[in-house]
Amino acid sequence: MRELYELTTLAAPLLSISEVAKAARAWVSMPEAAGTLLGCWRTEIGPLGRLLVLRRFNDADTLRRERQRALLSANPFNGGGVVTGLEMDSYSPFAFLPPARATHDAVYEVRTYKQKPGGLPATLAGWEAAIAPARDYTAHLLINMYALDGPPRITHIWGFDSLAQRAALRAAAYSAGLWPPKGGPDNILEATSTIALPEGE
User: Fold this and answer.
1) Cβ distance 118 to 25 under 8 Å?
2) pLDDT tens digit string along 14-69?
3) 179 pLDDT exceeds 80?
4) Percent of residues, the chain, with pLDDT higher than 90
């Protein structure tokens, strides 16, 4: 079985996000911790006061044990009295994409699409066909993955040098007819996009 991913969202007061990031990085680095940290980002556009933590796990058992560590802790992610909300979502990667790796981009976009029931197969097929032709744009794709719990949805994370670069690449891919992937938009019920910046690197 391929690797799995967990995207954790920690909510906290706006001025406490750097403190929460430092605590979360310590949590995922403890000797008993599992998984590989790929990114730690604070939200800048979209819902504010959020820290996003992306980790990769070698298998489902390892992810489950790490999830239990958080759930059974009186102080998950070392949040103390600062963290006001905690969400942990499990994902499987699109099989045709390489494993996600840590990057050092300036700006990240996290897009989540809630999908129609049964919409994932067409979405996967469309994305697989579109990745190579739109490579100037898709080279900036860190990961795309589908949720293993909760409502059907996919979440993709992109890294760019700037928002201007993002806008230019998207515009070029759209104008060339290379994006969006065929069949993908037809299966979207709700779409959200969050711009996030690296925190604590």
Assistant:
1) no
2) 999 999 999 999 999 999 999 999 999 999 999 999 999 999 999 999 999 999 99
3) yes
4) 96
What distance in Å separates the CA atoms of residue 43 and residue 130, rounded to the nearest whole number?
28
Tokens encoding 4: 């799995």
Q: How is domain 4-92 classified at the CATH fold level?
A: Alpha-Beta Plaits (3.30.70)
Are 174 and 157 within 8 A, CB to CB? Answer: no
Query: Do 4-92 and 100-198 come out as alike in CATH topology?
Result: yes
Q: Is the pLDDT of residue 91 over 80?
A: yes
Which two tokens mark 27? 């949590």
User: Which of 196, 183, 177 is CA-nearest to residue 154?
Assistant: 183
Using CA atoms, how far residue 124 sits from 58, 59, 93, 194, in Å, is: 22, 22, 10, 22
d(CA 170, CA 172): 5
Residue 201 has pLDDT above 80, yes or no: no
How do the domains of the chain map onto residue ranges? 4-92, 100-198
If one looks up domain 100-198 in CATH, what number appears?
3.30.70.100
Report residue 110 as tokens: 């996290």
